[in-house]
Design brief:
By secondary structure, this protein is of the alpha+beta class. It has 4 domains: about 5-105, Alpha-Beta Complex (DNA Primase, Chain A), CATH 3.90.580.10; about 110-235, Alpha-Beta Complex (DNA primase DNAg catalytic core, N-terminal domain), CATH 3.90.980.10; about 250-445, 3-Layer(aba) Sandwich (Dna Topoisomerase Vi A Subunit, Chain: A, domain 2), CATH 3.40.1360.10; about 505-655. Strands 1-2-3-4-5 form a 5-stranded antiparallel beta sheet. Helix 16 (about 375-385) packs parallel to helix 18 (about 410-425) and helix 24 runs antiparallel to helix 25 (about 575-585). About 35% of the residues are buried.
Length: about 650
């Protein structure tokens, strides 16, 4: 099991990685002054660019949505991966070997290199398959796509390709690119026989299966020819890259839309994903030859920001018995989500691809709009097995549906569906249904390994709100001290100062803001004496004062320039980190190095002169209130301080 990545390795990866080069893969950047670039923000929709990148500082900031951070947090946000995953991805890109705390292990340098070789092989294979789709032998494949409403542009958008019918077309192509037999065995793209390895996929349409970061990790292949004795769909087997329980087809295309729209649509096949996206339902993904399970939920919850503040998951299934069975299987996993879950079933049994072919894009949207809550679908599907026009059918239906309702972990939702069930059964007395549900709960409690509403780790009943637990169903935890902990947290929260984001137009704080911009962006301009002046300056705006203190601490610690901004951000409350990034990336009014240096020095001079003026006013006021005959020593001390302040002021102005 991997431990925590060592801090020095994290710093090394951050320092070695070119932020602009990373951001360029996602955003078109243009120069925005000396050492600064800007472009359209990838985190929110905007028409004019407000997303700024300063590579030398290693930070980005959006002045529109306030998103900010370093190269690691950028990769986290863009690829929706954890901090450790982002560091490991960047380390792999650099070929840098990470070390872990507490004896933990992570990918070694050779493993990083091997993984990259496998990814390279998949990338080249994908390009090979796409090129083959345009050849005469792939006519059947092109016809298959055309019949389902997918033109050449659609095929290119989703990277669809064709595997030639021979035994070694891909093998020859990859060995010609320098890949060894041992490497190719690890890709899952080849089978092995007595004479060696040969192409696993032959005479099939090929869909690249990509991970959330957009790297191809496997392929899905659809049979085209009658003499193919294999299954209709054939996927890459389990490899170090491809874990079918973790990958979702289309996640690379849908991830940003899922995150922004707080919606995930789960369909059943590759062509369904294509049809949905082409129709405008751009949050669609599909599992790859397996049911939607716990590992898929981890990915989905992270994208949805599944914290109880909204979001929905929509499962689409065929209207046949197999589709209903799949929907009920989804019900078993549903309650790992905080987001609301729904089922959308086309009455005619058409899948999204067929629906788009027959009735157009709007019909696909209509299917998603027709979604019903998954709880309702599960209960009604259970009741559909019985003849509810008879007493015996209603009794049997109640007995079958009561455990389904009992398995709803949120108390308020369970009560609501108990009442709905009474209505669907046509029972005048809902208490009869409530008793049946309670009985099902009690039976669930007495069964070994039961997962009923009362089992350890079930969601607590808090009105209509489901309580959020760790992704992937890691529920529950120790409850002792919960109230004391809540009280302590509340006290701590109330004791913390509340920082209000200053108005940049406020004339009182304008000088302080401009000075902080200069010091954050060009700390090297502060000489030893200037550091003392800066630390002694009395900032008036509370938020700016807090940043000034953090800058002073970072300056005293003599942190490396590559870690400068991170050190400052670490010294302010979390809610102010975005303000630090904003000041550090604000464009300064200079277009050349000489004018930039002059501007920065002028700002610092004015700041220090303003401080001297304040101190002089304080000393003059004290001098006027003092009787020199009563305390001549203090009177003379104040006079000397005034002279020293005036000397310092003249030195700043260069007057002597």
């Amino acid at each position: 099991m991997a431990g925590l990545i060592k801090r020095e390795d994290i710093d090394e990866v951050r320092t070695r990685t070119d932020l602009k080069e990373i951001v360029d893969a996602y955003v078109t950047l243009k120069s925005a002054g000396i050492g600064s670039y800007k472009g359209l923000c990838p985190f929110h929709d905007e028409r004019s660019p407000s997303f700024h990148v300063r590579p030398q500082m290693g930070y980005f900031h959006c002045f529109g949505c306030q998103e900010s951070g370093d190269v690691i947090s950028f990769i986290q946000k863009m690829d929706h991966i954890s901090f450790s995953e982002a560091v490991e991805k960047l380390a792999g890109r650099l070929g840098y070997e990470l070390h872990y705390e507490d004896g933990g292990t992570g990918p070694r340098r050779e493993e990083i290199g091997r993984r990259q070789r496998l990814l390279d092989a998949h990338k080249i294979a994908g390009e090979f398959y796409r090129a083959q789709l345009l050849t005469p032998p792939a006519a059947t494949g092109r016809q298959f796509l055309n019949e389902r409403g997918f033109d050449r542009e659609a095929a290119e958008r989703f990277g669809v390709g064709f595997a030639p019918q021979g035994w070694d077309a891909l093998l020859k192509h990859l060995t010609g690119k320098g890949f060894s037999t041992e490497e190719l065995k690890l890709t899952g793209m080849f089978s092995e026989g007595q004479r060696g390895i040969y192409d696993r996929f032959r005479g099939r349409l090929m869909w690249p299966i990509r991970d959330i970061a957009g790297d191809t990790v496997g392929f899905g292949a659809r049979k085209l020819f009658e003499d193919d004795q294999g299954p209709k769909y054939l996927n890459t087997p389990e490899t170090t890259l491809y874990k079918k329980s973790q990958v979702l087809y289309g996640i690379d295309l849908a991830k940003r839309n899922i995150a922004s729209k707080r919606q995930l649509v789960v369909v059943e096949g590759y062509t369904d994903v294509m049809a949905c996206h082409l129709a405008g339902v751009d949050t669609a993904v599909a599992t790859c030859g397996t049911a939607f399970g716990a590992d898929h939920i981890k990915v989905a919850r992270r994208l949805l920001s599944d914290d109880g503040t909204g979001g929905e998951v929509v499962f689409t299934f065929d209207g046949d018995a197999a589709g209903q069975k799949a929907a009920l299987k989804a019900f078993d996993e549903d309650q790992r989500f905080v987001a609301q879950t729904f089922v959308a079933v086309e009455p005619s049994g058409a899948d999204p691809c067929e629906l788009r072919q027959r009735k157009g894009d709007e019909a696909v949207h209509g299917l998603i709009r027709s979604r019903r809550p998954l709880f309702e679908f599960a209960i009604r599907s259970t009741l559909a097995r019985f003849d509810l026009s008879t007493v015996e059918g209603r009794v049997s239906g109640l007995r079958a549906a009561a455990p389904v309702v009992a398995d709803i972990r949120d108390g308020s939702t369970r009560m609501g569906y108990s009442q709905e069930l009474a209505g669907w059964l046509g029972m005048a007395d809902p208490n009869e249904v409530l008793r049946a549900v309670k009985g099902a709960e009690r039976r669930a409690h007495t069964q070994p390994g039961a997962k009923g509403p009362g089992h350890a780790g079930a969601r607590s009943d808090v009105g209509h709100q489901r309580v959020n637990f760790a992704a992937g169903g890691q529920r529950g935890g120790q409850q002792q001290g919960t109230q004391q902990g809540a009280n302590l947290a509340a006290e701590t929260e109330s004791a913390r100062p509340v920082f209000v984001r200053p108005d940049p137009r406020d004339p009182q704080g304008r000088m302080e803001r401009e000075a902080l911009e200069v010091v954050l962006q060009h700390p090297g301009l502060l000489t030893a004496g200037n550091w003392q002046h800066f630390a002694a300056t009395e900032f008036v705006v509370p938020a700016y004062k807090a940043i000034q203190m953090a800058i002073t601490l970072a300056g005293e610690s003599l942190v490396a320039s590559s870690q400068w901004l991170e050190a400052v951000r670490a010294g302010v409350p979390e809610e102010m980190e975005s303000l630090v990034a904003e000041l550090a990336l604000s464009p300064l009014p200079a277009t050349r190095e000489d004018t930039l240096t002059r501007y920065c020095r002028d700002i610092l001079r004015r700041l220090f002169e303003l401080q001297i003026t304040r101190l002089k006013e304080e000393r003059l006021g004290a001098l006027q209130r003092m009787d020199p005959a009563v305390d001549p020593e203090s009177y003379q001390l104040l006079q000397r301080e005034l002279m020293e302040l005036e000397t310092a002021r003249r030195q700043l102005r260069g007057d002597g």
